[in-house]
Amino acid sequence: MKKSLATIGVLAAAALALSGCTDSAAPSNTSTGDAGSGSEELTTVRVAALPIAETGALWAAMEEGIFEEHGLEIEVVPAQGGANAIPALISGDIQFAIGQPFGPIRADLQDLGVVIIGNYANSLAEGTDVNAVVAGADAGITRPADLAGKKVSVNTIGAAGDLTIRKAVQDDGGDPSTIEFVEVAFPDVPAQLEAGTMDAAWAPDPFRGIIVGGGGVEVVSPYQATIPGLSVLTSITTQALLDDDPELVASYSEAMAEALEWASGNEEAVRAAIATNLEIPEEAAAGITLPEFTWELTAEDIEELGALAVEFAYIDAEPDYARLIQQQ
Question: Which terminal residue of the chain, N or C, has fewer Cβ atoms less than 10 Å from its own Cβ?
Answer without folding.
Answer: N
